[in-house]
């Protein structure tokens, strides 16, 4: 890429394919882990919402 700046570095096959998750290049969560985390958060929100609805339903009765 032109105009990006910085030193030029050759990348190995593993780095190009996202290996070495702790490194700068290709770091972070893999797509499966991201999806798992998203689903976990959504389920927690849903459970909290259901818990609040049960609390309000109990007060009305």
From TrEMBL:
Biased composition (Basic and acidic residues): 32-51
Domain of life (superkingdom): Bacteria
Residue ranges of the region described as Disordered: 1-61
Biased segments, Gly residues type: 19-29
Acidic residues biased stretches: 52-61
UniProt-listed InterPro entries: DUF6243 (IPR046210)
Protein name, UniProt field: Uncharacterized protein
Organism annotation: Streptomyces cahuitamycinicus
